[in-house]
Amino acid sequence: MSRRAVAALLVLAFAILATACAPYTARRQAAIYDPAESLTEVVAVLRRHIPDDTYRFPPGRDFTGRNVYRATLLRLENIERIHADELRSGYMDAVIDFSKARSLERLRGYDLAAAHYREAARKDQELREEALASAAVCEAIHAAVQIGLELPDPTLKTVEPLPMDVDGVTAELDTRVGDLVAILSSLGTSHREDSHYRAVVREEIERADTIRARYFLALRPVIEDGSIRAVSEMQRLLSRHGASQNRRRHMLELADLYAAISREYIEAVPPEGLHFDPPKFQELVDAAAELYRSVAAEDGTPEKLEAARRLEAFLAFTLRVDRDRFAQPQ
What we know:
This protein has 330 residues and is an all-alpha fold.
């Protein structure tokens, strides 16, 4: 066969391959960016992820890589808008309301979730018992999370200052956690032991503990023994939520705190001066470096890279200290 014939065959083969791949590529793009083809498809994906333990593991992702609960809510709204004529009879309204509620409760929209559950209970007798039970849990969680401090959105034009009533803030957050623990205890009788609400409530307890720790972190420069209290609160958060998916994040925040205190110590007590205490500085450096190394050793996590880079920068900072008076960490 001549070279010209071989070349012609190759061109034909590539053309056939491109033609075959084009429909697949188009279908893939449509699947990612277009609305779902059916309500059954959306509900099936959501149902698969309802039992997920989102306290211990990150939320599930759909085939586009988006949070499955947020993606489900968006797709349900798209279906309602695009297929309004087909759904006008209302025969799927209860399913849509129930599915929206399942998504909203994982997005911390507990009041909205409860409203959708009650709508589903009103429209469908088969869903009524589960919908009302779920509405009651969502309303209880919503009431609990209204208690106490919420850290402000720093991007707002006007941001209220944090309250200086330390005892009052901790008391309110303890009340919130107490109410959430009571909800968690009640799930054993009102729901199955493997209820997905156990993970939802644990997430809210962790959030309350995180708010408390970051409150003391923010007030560290202006309250008595601020650094000691901030370290104590960060350690408390880490010890109470060692099984959380956010454990490595908490470890990084505690390491950053030790690193910040060590930098502040160098500024306040220069290592060239008489009052510099090498063992005290060594203790701070070791604590930060150990935490950074622990996180950097965990493969397959986004925090691994963060920890490695922060450790490198922190160890570079320690080079400022007189090596004769301070043992560099290995």
